[in-house]
Amino acid sequence: MTDLTSLTLAEARKGLAAKTFTSLELIDAHLSAIEAARVLNAFVMETPDQARSMAREADAKIAKGDAGPLVGIPLGIKDLFATKGVRTTACSKILGNFVPTYESTVTSQLWRDGAVMLGKLNNDEFAMGSSNETSCFGPVGNPWRRDGSNTTLVPGGSSGGSASAVAALLCMGATATDTGGSIRQPAAFTATVGIKPTYGRCSRWGIVAFASSLDQAGPIARSVRDSAMLLRSMAGHDPKDTTSVDIPVPDYEAAIGKSVKGMKIGIPKEYRLDGMPAEIEKLWSEGAAWLKAAGAELVEVSLPHTKYALPAYYIVAPAEASSNLARYDGVRYGLREQGKNIIELYENTRAEGFGAEVKRRVMIGTYVLSAGYYDAYYLRAQKVRTLIKKDFEDCFANGVDAILTPATPSAAFGIGEKGGADPVEMYLNDIFTVTVNMAGLPGIAVPAGKDAQGLPLGLQLIGRPFDEETLFSLGEVIEQAAGRFTPARWW
Amino acid sequence: MSTATHKLLKGATGDWEMVIGMEIHAQVTSNSKLFSGASTAFGGEANSHASLVDAAMPGMLPVINEECVRQAVRTGLGLNAQINLRSVFDRKNYFYPDSPQGYQISQYKSPIVGEGEVVVELDGRKTATIGIERLHLEQDAGKLLHDQSPTMSYVDLNRCGVALMEIVSKPDIRDAEQAKAYVTKLRSILRYLGTCDGDMEKGSLRADVNVSVRKPGAPLGTRCEIKNMNSINFIGQAIEYEARRQIEILEDGGAIDQETRLYDPNKGETRSMRSKEEAHDYRYFPDPDLLPLEFSQAFVDELKAELPELPDQKKARFVADFGLSAYDASVLVAERESAVFYETVLNTLGNRARDGKMAANWVINELFGRLNKEGGNITGSPVGAEQLAAIIDLIGEGTISGKIAKDLFEIVWQEGGDPRALVESRGMKQVTDLSAIEKVVDDIIAANPDKAAQVKDKPQSLGWFVGQVMKASGGKANPQSVNELLKSKLGV
Fold first, then answer.
1. How far apart are CA A50 and CA A60, in angstroms?
2. In chain B, which residues have their Cβ closer than 8 Å to the Cβ of A89?
3. Helix, strand, or coil here: A86?
4. Which residues in chain A are closer than 8 Å to B285, comparing Cβ atoms?
5. Which of B199, B234, B289, B444: CA 20 to 30 A from A468?
6. Mean pLDDT by 10-residue block, N- to C-terminus, for chain B (492 residues)?
7. Residues linked to residue B212 through DSSP beta bridges, in sequence order
8. Omega cis (within 30) before A410
9. How many other CB atoms are there within 10 angstroms of residue A49's CB atom?
């Protein structure tokens, strides 16, 4: 039965429809895999009983012939998504044993379409991190290791649990969120496919907020097609989120295999960083060559404000976060550390409940919004953001259909290797991805090759607003050319 | 009507002028809260009107209540103010348990309503124009309950998230009387519009009052803000006290500390709440959960077309159509209920054009006079508008005299009933039958030959005869007929 876990979502859908196996069998296979992979620490909460009961319902629906598009498919849910009756913590001690009485819009749409929840996945605390090391549940192991090494590597972050679980065949797909690269960077580190859709594509209702103007949900999956299937269920307008956009969700899967002939692909010169590893450079050229071979036209483009994106991001995101996280005050839910008065209760609760990285960002955010600093930091960063957005708009106005860049400046690194002394070292992981969030555009990370040590590397495609379809079409071209990558099991 | 002169305060060093500006928080009349679907009903068990959004549960998002937007626009129109087709919601960040989000959603740099003005009546005879700086929408806070436990405070979120309009005046107010008149007028406009119930006891309308003093013509002085006033009389008292306090400090060579103060109505004084240094840095920034609030001019025009008649317009109409004095008209329109009462009387009258003015006198003098004496209000008046209209009809058509009408009013006040039927059943009808009156007149002339002889020399003594005839007829004789009859009989 273990080989059921190696199917793609699309293959599993076929098998279920043909009644080759039941959803319950599929779920049990994954539950066993999860149990055997606890060393990865990808799941922070396993929900086997709920999974089996959902699987039985799925099987009943399949038998009746009224099955939804994801019926019986086992998924993992990032712990940032509120799941009704199931502990939701954002991997922060401050939420303690918080159990929501409500279900996030995105997950409720997945259940509407028949998907089955296996459990909740690890992530960086409040999605703040690029290595999944800031989780209060501890770091997540990447199923990939360097050739001949026993060092456990990070899966990236913040959706590290999602990426690790999908890569280690613990679930067929996972929900994730992306504020500055939190879907695409872990996907690149684990040879999975991750898409951050256009801002406003997925409802943010019921997702623990990090930076509201940047946060966007999306899937991590094992193939471009699988990610398209998942996104179709996750996306859609939600009256409960006024920033979600009311335009129809297309059948993304239909974009797979569509010709990319004549498409204009921009190669942004500003993404060619000083000191960029040669193998990243090589991967990028290879990706460009594959797209060219498929009939696309390559053009060099300029995104002149790119170099300001990361510093501006690290003003805007913490500013919003400092306000979004104010509600975790020990008064109504989650952790409470008593004090002599209300101020002490706040101080004790937040000192005990938040980890170091969250505290750092709350302090940065508070600082940049303070009287006397607002104009110099927050307002300026917003101006930079407008310029970054305009860079992309100009590019698309010149007929560019999508932009190709590396997904990350390096492959996965070891736990504890980065950011210990200087947090900026960690922040640099997001150098290629934050611009996309700042501009609200869709971006997909697709596995494209390996580095010299055998670690996966990914390429990123950036699209026009609400044109995820083009990214799926182009992503599949890269996937076809590069092939699929599966880690050797060591756990 | 003339433009107001304002009161100056005398100090040891000469006259001082007060400069006053106000921030009024008016609770928007709406069924649900500004950003959540929870009910705005007053009272209710603690936290029974609190939604997941109000409690700031993780992942909850605000969604603007369009009715509150309409109410704010209506109010802006009622204040003759600029309506901003694009405005922005900001977060005002501070920690307090009555604010679960850790921030209040408000409007900081781009409010929904800009500059406008309100004309206020002073003593009903003079007016002053007070500028409106802006009006913005924001969330109300919850309530802390300190009496539920000896060691803990409890939080009730029923009021949390209810929509407030903060209406900021320009510093155009110059004395306590103007300040009180301003709040009174604003409250009246809001109640006419139906955008706020104006119930100050329930906290639906609260004012923060900024007071500073200066020598007339001098630059603005340092101001103090008196927070959370919920009585118009207290506002007047607090301003007087605060201005005198500041004058005393300045005349002693001191300086005013910019601070927030509270008024203690029991002691009749203001006291310091927090200084400028203790003031919060609210770290305002645009709320990223909400898009800018945008609507079309057509939306505004539609609301404008549906606006009810406001007190100033109503007053002008009463003066023009019924010949009311400006003072009487402003008394009638000051409270929406009074105006509604008067208009119901008007609409019920048999001859509005003839008796409209008389009706105003009756409403103001008889009805309001009686209500004030009894401590009642117009909504609970024992004499209804239809009844009063019937009494006035009876006077107007000459069925009863004004004097009898007062008796009739008293009967209706005490016992109720249909005035027309009462006049019949109790024989209160005015006697216009000349032959019946003539007999009484003849009797009285016959009984007083001396006085009758004197009348030719002293025509003013005719009044004595009129009085006697009226008395003898039990007040039912038509005074005009009596007068004419007496004149002809006595040859005056």
1. 15
2. none
3. strand
4. 319, 323, 369, 374, 378
5. B289
6. 73 95 98 96 92 98 98 98 98 96 97 97 84 98 92 94 98 96 96 96 95 95 95 96 97 95 94 82 97 98 97 94 91 91 94 92 94 89 94 91 89 93 85 76 86 81 85 80 83 78
7. B19
8. no
9. 8
- Surface of A (314-353) touching B: CB under 8 A: 319-320, 322-323, 325-327, 329, 331-333, 342, 346
Rounded to the nearest integer, the mean pLDDT of chain B is: 92
Q: Which residue in A23, A108, A158, A162 is the catalytic one?
A: A158
Q: How many CB atoms lie within 10 A of CB B463?
A: 11
Tokens of A305: 């404000």
Taking the C-alpha atoms of residue B451 and residue B464, their distance in angstroms, rounded to an integer, is: 9
Least Cα separation, residue A212 to chain B (angstroms): 6
Q: Which residues in A386-410 are b (16+ Cβ under 10 Å) and which e?
A: ebbbebbeebbeeebbbbbbbbbbb
> Between chains, do A327 and B155 touch, taking CB under 8 Å as contact?
no
Q: Buried b / exposed e across A361-378, counting CB within 10 Å, b at 16+?
A: bbebbbbbbeeebbeebb
Whether A203 is a known active-site residue: answer no
Give the DSSP H or E segment for B453.
helix B449-454
Whether the CB-CB separation of B394 and B400 falls below 8 Å is answered with yes
User: A414-435 burial, b for 16+ CB within 10 Å, e for fewer?
Assistant: ebeebbeeebeebbbbbbbbbb
Q: Which of B326, B301, B302 is nearest to B314 (CA)?
A: B326
* B149 interfacial to chain A (CB closer than 8 Å): no
| Residues on chain A touching B60 (C-beta within 8 angstroms) | 205-206
Asked if the C-beta of B291 comes within 8 angstroms of chain A's C-beta atoms, the answer is yes
C-alpha R_g of chain B: 30
Q: Which residue has the tokens 């005074």?
A: B479
Q: Which residue has the tokens 């009894």?
A: B374
pLDDT tens digits, one per residue of A65-123: 988 999 999 999 999 999 999 999 999 999 999 999 999 999 999 999 999 999 999 99
HEC profile for B100-115? CCCEEEECCCCCCECC
Nearby residues of A428 by Cβ (< 8 Å), 6 or more positions away: A310, A409
User: What single DSSP character describes residue A40?
Assistant: G
Place of tokens 């990610």: A227
Q: Is the Cβ–Cβ distance between B58 and B52 less than 8 Å?
A: no
End-to-end C-alpha distance for chain A, whole angstroms: 18
The whole model's pTM is what?
0.91
Sign of the CA dihedral A100, A102, A106, A111?
A: positive
* Dihedral of alpha carbons A408, A410, A414, A418, sign: negative
Given an 8 Å threshold on Cβ–Cβ distance, is A326 in contact with B93? yes
Q: How far apart are CA A113 and CA B453, in angstroms?
A: 111
User: Taking a C-beta distance cutoff of 8 angstroms, is the pair A444, A181 a contact?
Assistant: no
